[in-house]
Amino acid sequence: MSVDASHEHGQPTTGGSNFLRNLIAEQIASGEHTGAVVTRFPPEPNGYLHIGHAASICLNFGLAEYFQGACRLRFDDTNPDAEDQEYIDSIQADIQWLGFEWDGEVRYTSQYFATLYDYALHLIAAGLAYVDELSPDEIRDYRGTLTEPGKNSPYRDRDPAESRAMFEAMARGEYAEGTACLRARIDMAAGNINLRDPVIYRIRNKAHHQTGDAWCVYPSYDFAHGQSDAIEGVTHSICTLEFEDHRPLYNWLLEHLPVPARPVQYEFARVNLNYTITSKRKLRRLVEEQIVDGWDDPRMPTISGIRRRGYTPASIRAFCDRVGVSRSGGTVDAAMLEHAIRDDLNKNAARAMCVIDPLKVVITNWEAGHVETLTAPGHPDRDDMPERHLPLTREVYIEKADFREEANKKYKRLVLGKKVRLRNAYVIEAHDVVKNEAGEIVEVHCTYDPDTLGDNPADGVKPKGVIHWVSASHGKQALVRVYDRLFAVENPGREDDLLDGLNPFSLEIHPGCWIEPGLADVAAETRVQFERTGYFVADRYDHAAGAPVFNRVVALRDTWAKIEQRGA
């Protein structure tokens, strides 16, 4: 069995609008922007990336690729309380899996801590920052509301020399957490709350995963963001729309600090999927309460989960391209993502047969012990995929759902006294069944017509349909997991309890499946189409030669409406 030949990192050829790409092209054409386009992807290393981050990765790295510029990877590691090397490693792996390479070495905001500290001293000396001893709750109260201005802190007019001495003492660890902070001195009556003397440094008496015990004060994201962009020579700092109100602060800091460059911030609408949550807090709950089997559970919207589910990098990039980039927020139908992988695998996944719910069929006029090796195409439209070899024997397995003792004319599968074709093999006719003590059918007896193989079947033979099968003696057993959407409600985040929206059919485990013998030894992450059933992938971790484990990636067609009806 050949590994699927999907274009793992191929560029999508069609897509939605991308206002940022159009904007940058106009800037270059008009001479407003000269030189290289430099973007950055600045994740916080405090969790696993999800499908929304994938869109941001594709945007930032994609713009750099399109304009032959550079995209930097910078970890925004300003909060030692929640960051971990595990997340750093996973984020780098996710970006590389999607097919992108960052410019130069991996960067960290923590590399600029000394420079950012000097920038803070610069603001203090200019009377544009002060050490405040209000408590966090008092700062919040003094800040005002959207309709009422804030109040000046009693420490706002502190002498710059005193603020500097206190800030330096804070940096030496001489203050407890929460007893003081450094605030920019802007305008407590500003209509934009982000300009009401924002906190730019906090005390954290905790070791940092990159700098160890070197620092006891850490910059806020708002303070570190623009200055790090400037240090790295970023030209287009692209953020999601929730940072639009932070742009005036971004610009104010750049204007009042001796930074080496003047990056410009642009905002775009994040990608939100229905039937999906991306909140780190809620995803963590699913993991901690063991609703899912970890951050890479194939039902999770994390990139590691999507990868394990069997999605390809090309399908994720195609999805992001089709969604496009705009400034108007909204929710994208999850069916678009499923369509992207279905379209990819339809073209690139090899075909195979798997019987998930087996029922034994005995071909009574087949010679015992005789094996006939048939052939089938690896892919109906791909000559580069080798033919499959299918051993046909006296006993085979078919799906239980593919047989009925009696059925109406709409049922196009095996029925007593009726004929059906075994896929890529002969026509068989059922004539008897064997039942157990409970009255359940455990075996179907059939005869086959030896003149019905190939392109010239016997005249007058009209089977009702075609069903798939696997040899009972030459097939291999496998564990198959049938995954579906984790949530059965369109907006699970609005449920009173997140767990109320769970889809009870999100995972069905089938330990006794039968697969073609050629499937048993394929490599992990091999993607195939189980004919008539769906697209599946050999599990990234659990699959092994001789002990195959396959996960369903997606059904052959959109079956979600039926699933919703089943759960009603």
TrEMBL record:
One of its GO terms (cellular component) is cytosol. L-glutamine binds at D76, Y221. Residues 349-449 form the Glutamyl/glutaminyl-tRNA synthetase class Ib anti-codon binding domain. It is found in: Cytoplasm. GO terms for biological process: glutaminyl-tRNA aminoacylation; glutamyl-tRNA aminoacylation. A motif ('HIGH' region) lies at residues 43-53. A motif ('KMSKS' region) lies at residues 277-281. ATP binds at E44, P45, N46, T240. Its EC number is 6.1.1.18. The keyword Protein biosynthesis applies. Signal peptide: none annotated. Keywords: Aminoacyl-tRNA synthetase, ATP-binding, Cytoplasm, Ligase, Nucleotide-binding, Protein biosynthesis. Residues 37-346 form the Glutamyl/glutaminyl-tRNA synthetase class Ib catalytic domain. PANTHER family: GLUTAMATE--TRNA LIGASE (PTHR43097:SF5), GLUTAMINE-TRNA LIGASE (PTHR43097). Belongs to the class-I aminoacyl-tRNA synthetase family. Monomer. This is Glutamine--tRNA ligase.
